[in-house]
User: Fold these one by one.
Assistant:
Number 1:
Amino acid sequence: MDSIGKTTLTFVDDTIPEKLLNAPWLAALAPAGDPGTSIRLPLYQDAVRAGWPSPAAGYEEARLDLNEHIIQRPEATFLLRVQGRSMEGAKISEGDVLVCDRAITPVHGHVVIAEVNGDFCVKTLWKRGGTVKLLSANPKYPPITFEDGSELVIFGVVTWILHKTPS
Amino acid sequence: MYALCDANNFYASAERIMRPDLRKRGVLVLGNNEGCIVARSAEVKALGIKMGQPWFQVKDMARQHGIVAFASNYALYADISDRIVTVLRDMAPCVEPYSIDESFCLLGGVAEPERLCREMKQRIERWVGVPVCLGLGRSRSRSKLANFIAKRNAEFEGVFNIDALQPHEELARLSNIEVGEVWGVGSRYAKRLGELGILSVADLQAADVEFIRQQFGVVLARTVQELRGIPCIGIEAQIPHKQQIMCSRSFGRPVLTLEELEQAVVTYSARAAEKLREDGSVAQGVMVFAYTSPFRDIPQYSGSRVIPLVTASQDTRLITAAAVAGVRHLYRPGFQYAKAGVMLLDLLPQEIVQGDLFAAGDSKRSRSLMATVDRLNKEMGRGTVIFAGQGIRPRWAMKQGMKSPAYTTSWKELRIVRA
């Protein structure tokens, strides 16, 4: 036992599954098993509380965090609000907030924020066999094409649609 | 190996992110109450419009050329600055923010620093949307020069390594750069150096270190060493920035509580405001930042906030109040802060300031109070008179008219996208 309270035991038995070694709750339990089986575990560096710890102790998970789940890369993510109805077929409604990630490479089929005529629009990207188009989800709106000379500039890829119910 | 990363025309570029219609049009940004120009895009520079020019002088020309003017949107700039630093911190071993749009990256131990810099530049432009330049060199001063060269010469595509030059190439380049461009050499030093026959960077590089130390002090002597490739000026040396003043320190031991962080920030604010008054300037905004040590295997956090000042000020109390408000906002519990700092942004000569009738601002009384405080601190030792730091409530409501929306910091002001 070294001076900062870490107990290291030599691991002998290979059959103990890898994931058990990393289970946080294990660290709170006193080492059990026969002398021939031992496990190398990092223990908390803080003082261990007296008394038998509950198996759930040390396994506290943080409450679900929406931010973490929806925004993978905050530094590359921008939020925009939808105006217009051409993408209702793609479940994007007027007033929705779109989570746009600039770090994702846009590919065929992605919903993207594109720069068209000096403004942002949200469309589905069509990219097949050298042709590039922006499609709406409404037959009333024709695809936006890019002839030679004009370039498609994509601001980012839409990863989430935040739609508020009337509640 | 050091790399200085800085954004091209930062405020103007930040305004352009959400405005595809402005990518090719001139953009300029005005300081408090739409007073003076604090940022210009390349198109505006090309027209000969200068930094610090008052808006009323430039208004007509701007309209003629279809230039769009904005009142400074510090919430947006601080956020964009934060994003750039986050990207850098993810890619470089150690990042030191130097101002709102510049950071030094320490690349010691990186196998291919030039390639890394190209990747960092590309990622910042792709992920954040702001064009940057990176300059590499064996010392901070050299990396700053390299950055200058990268900015001025489009053929380098934004990344330049001054250490990759052959000695005769380096001499040729540095002979053609004015000595005033060296980090820490302001126009005052440049003039005196010129009188001594030191006109180019190469001249300064070749100057006698001892002579420089006697004539100009130890910092410039160290600069000469830095130009020769010996890193000896730390970020803590607080080399004065042309447009900003910074005061920051690494903590002796990690700081965990907001209280401690606030105390540190109060100290830095006072010091920075002192320097501001010495400089004869007023500041238009206060930036405060804090971050964890990237060297330790601990949860990482880096945050910054910018508080605009209603009237440009050099008053310690206002600056401190702004900095404290900022640090309260950026503080997250559970992190071990290794460093914090206060930066005073967009400096103006103190003569320029027009008082806002209703702002607390710099009255004649406040200025004489400040002068007394400075004198006491000078005569009796720094810290003789310190400020409690609380109790001043600055008014931050600025004229909204020309400010762009807080696209990234307010739900009500999100950018619209057409469907």
Number 2:
Amino acid sequence: MSDFSAWGDFGISEAQARRRRSQRTIANEQAATLGQLRGQRNLLNIQKQYQEGFQPLVASYGRRGLGGPNVQSGIRTRGLERFAEQLQADLGAETSRMTDELRGIAQDETNAQQELEDYLADLRLQKALAAMQSAMNIKQFAAY
Amino acid sequence: MAPRNTPKPSPFGPRLTEYTPEKVMKNPGPVANPVFQDALNRVVTRLLTGSTDLSGFGLDGAGGGSGAARRRKQNAAIMNIFNRRQGEANRFYAGQEKQATSTINKAMEDFLASLGGPTAYQNAPVPNLPQTQMGLLAQLQQYGASPEMAQAQQATDAAYAQQMQDIFNRSNQQMQGTDEAFYRSLQAGARGGQAQSLMALANLMAGLRAQTQSETAGARDELLLRALGL
């Protein structure tokens, strides 16, 4: 940041603050994009893992005599339902993780915007006060 | 504030304005001629009242005469000159004060116009991704299993995410209120600075006026006494 007074640096402080804000936005956008890609990949992997594991699970019930064309087994039914429930829970956890990550990035953007706005407002206040003080001080030399 | 300039020493000694009647009568100082001191006291008293009539002090000879009339006319001219000078000085200072006041008020107006209001937390986005549905619905139905447990799990996850979103939205609303209070404090600070600058300006101009008036009166008194031959 410039060492000059609020507006004696001719807007350098404001320009630097805006530039930092833009850099932070770019970084957040990149993080959000990469996070979403990673999350989507994870979701697909989870779906694929459970899809591929479904038939072996059914087969395992059949080997124990709990499945087959002429067998109606509550144990197998409950097992398959719990398997589907677990899949949904894993998908929900990954979605929650993605949401938390995205929410953190959005909150960082909001906080960064607030910091910028507050900084610029304070800069404008310092400028106004300096102008008022100068207008008064210069009259010390108003000798008749 | 240091004095703007130091008055030149008068050939008559200390400036006449330093000799107030009270001061002189209390502490007359080394005066050789008591008649002169008495006349001086009365002259000073008369001048301090603002009067230009210095007749009857026994300084211009017995009675009046053309010399006295001429002296009165001369004194009146001196008073007129310095009164006009003081009036011009007052007008000058009034103009300076008006200019500075205008600048101060304009700075305040520009600040309020440029300030705007906080917008960061106003309608800030809070993401809430939709829950992904498990892809085993057809397989479950094939084996006579129900997707209800999975659907219940999905509903629980969605409700939890909605709760989190509501919490974040409320936080952002509170932050918006905090920011608005901060902006109000900035406005109050500017108003305080404006008032302070205007008060300091008024004090400064009053000091300058008083100093000019004092110097003008001192110079006037010197000339008056010189015109009286003192």
